[in-house]
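Lecture 7, part 2: worked example. A protein chain together with NAP.
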Amino acid sequence: MKSKTVLITGASRGIGAQTALLAAKEGWQVAVNYSTNSLAADAVVRQIRSAGGSAISIQADVGVEAEIKRMFAQIDAKWGRLDGLVNNAGVVDFAQRLDQFSAQRLERMMRINVIGSFLCAKEAVLRMSTRQGGEGGSIVNVGSAASRLGSPNQYIDYAASKGAVDVMTLGLAKEVASEGIRVNAVRPGIIDTEIHASGGQPDRARDLAPQMPMGRVGSSLEVAQAIVWLLSPLSSYCSGSLLDIAGAR
Ligand code: NAP
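Predicted complex, written out as structure tokens:
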């Protein structure tokens, strides 16, 4: 039996990297996408291979359609099949009120978090749908608790982009339910990764931990475990689910 193949966007660091490592442990062949940090992506691939797994790294900015198409073509050429997609790549921005947002900021946020997720889902559906001659598969979108909290005074634009990811999950799940594809989302709360530093708040996770219901933030592994479960047949009747992984926040 051939191994199943999954593409994980933004898998060089944080939640995506943990998901890549765990998926490989569960027997998936993993395409490790990254944007600029090739060293980090290569380290994930090396770790997978040294444990006996199969992985490749693929540079592509999910905010650029031509790069998405090239990425999927690389997977076609390497493995000739696709069984899973984790739409994980995502960005935040500096804390600002809505009345300070520039059009440029909004365009970047929506291009990467929303359009990137839609276009990757499109390429995955074209390969996995039984209607297109595929064998079915599973798509897991990485949303955020921000879509139900709104992120005031922080980044309402980010929260709104994750709201779009929630709605895409609900709609696409129904659209392809009879074509062998399940579509779900995880909605993490505050997870200890480098994303907070990229938004200018490197200590955000540590600072907010005492205010969290469990008195701590989450780890990348705690999110990865849910993603890999949603990819697997263990969740075979889950589709259109938005799974909060936010420690009761
Ligand atoms: P992270 O540590 O900042 O890692 C981001 C990953 O995405 C990196 O691998 C990065 O690649 C990649 N990436 C960024 N922009 C990209 C682009 N345009 N094209 C392709 N890859 C790109 O982030 P994280 O905290 O693991 O977050 C992962 C996902 O979880 C995001 O969608 C985020 O919104 C969501 N999330 C995170 C939290 C949290 O508290 N951490 C909470 C809720 C939701 P390079 O290494 O090349 O830069």
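The first strand starts at residue 5 and ends at 8. The radius of gyration is 17 Å. Keep this in mind for problem set question 3.
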